[in-house]
Amino acid sequence: MKYKIFFSVLSVFYASIVFAVGTMTVGDDFVADMSLDARGSGWLWDAKSSTLTLSEGYDNGAINIACEYDDNIRINYAGDFFISTGSASAIFCSGSLEISGNGTLTVESYNEAVIATLSNLSITGGTIIVVARNNGEHAISCWKDLFIGGQARVEAKVTEGTGGGIYAGASISIADNAAVNVTTAGEFHGINAVEDIAISTGETVVVAVTGNAVPLVSESGKIIVANGTVNLQKTGATDLSELTSGVLEQTGGKINDF
Q1: Measured in whole angstroms, how far is the alpha carbon of residue 226 from the centre of its chain?
Q2: How far is Cα 132 from Cα 114, in angstroms, rounded to an integer?
Q3: C-alpha dist (Å) from residue 19 to 6, 7, 47, 70, 184
Q4: CA angle centred on 111, ends 109 and 115, rounded to 5°
Q5: Residue 135's pLDDT is what?
Q6: Which DSSP state fits 184?
Q7: Does residue 187 fall inside a structural domain?
Q8: Residue 37 placed within a domain
């Protein structure tokens, strides 16, 4: 009877685990079945938690996660990494993705959005430097909600082309003690959400744009500033109205326009 109970509990435990479905390319390595544990030089995939961990020895190749739309994937890293690609996103996930770590993760792309997801994106720790050297793509792009929180430090730079800084197909939230710095050189906006942009961080958000771009854009919602310091910069701007697009609702914090 004890064995029957034990195996019954074990069966319920494993049945409650939702494994990611799909394939994954990590640098030069290909994972054909994400429901199974896998490892390579400088990386480890834990199927039960759907977590990809990068460590010393990783070859700094691009990461492409072709999972289901409703899968929740995590990338953790320990150390400093530089991922550069000329023909695709440096990090792409077809589901929801959370990135967190200790150290600095620098990613760049010459053609596509540098970090891109087809669902939600969360950045909750570490220093993430995103460099877009492209024509018409954003440095960071997700089709649903974007959350930047914890102690994360995010720097998004568009150094060539007309691309924008950060884009979300739904809402953007910058919270906790996260700091964000966005610089664009093209015609696309600095931080652009289809729905609300909510800034409640205790740190600083800096957005600098040029040309016809606008630092903060909410296409159909509000720009809500509740805490922190928001520095908005645009060449030739003379008024705060030129630095935001959407309904601005300030309940706290400080907005500086330069």
Answers
A1: 22
A2: 6
A3: 22, 20, 6, 11, 38
A4: 45
A5: 66
A6: -
A7: yes
A8: no
Q: Record the tokens describing residue 35, joined without a space.
A: 């429901």
DSSP letter at 189 equals -
Q: What is the CA radius of gyration of the chain?
A: 20
Integer Cα distance of 109 and 18 in angstroms? 32
Q: Report the predicted TM-score, pTM, of the whole model to 2 decimal places.
A: 0.92
Q: DSSP secondary structure string, 95-141?
A: SEEEEEEESEEEEEESSS-SEEESS-EEE-SSEEEEEEESSS--SEE
Whole-angstrom Cα distance, residue 220 to residue 248?
12
Q: What CA–CA distance (Å, rounded) separates 194 from 118?
A: 15
Contacts of 224 (CB under 8 A, 6+ apart): 196, 197, 198, 199, 200, 249, 250, 251
Measure the CA–CA gap between 218 and 247, rounded to whole angstroms.
Answer: 8
Residues of the chain below pLDDT 70: 1-16, 135, 258
Q: pLDDT tens digits for 197-206?
A: 999 999 999 9
> How do residues 87-129 score in pLDDT, each as one tens digit?
789 999 999 999 999 999 999 998 789 999 999 999 999 999 9
Q: Residue 237 has what pLDDT?
A: 83
Q: What pLDDT does residue 6 have? A: 40
In a domain, 66, yes or no: no
Q: For position 16, what pLDDT does the model report?
A: 52
Q: How many domains does the chain have?
A: 1
List the structure tokens of 13: 């435990």
Cβ(245)–Cβ(216) under 8 Å?
A: yes
Distance CA 120, CA 214 (A): 24
Phi-psi region of 69 (alpha: psi -120 to 50; beta: other; left: phi over 0): alpha
Tokens (6 digits) for 121? 């994106």
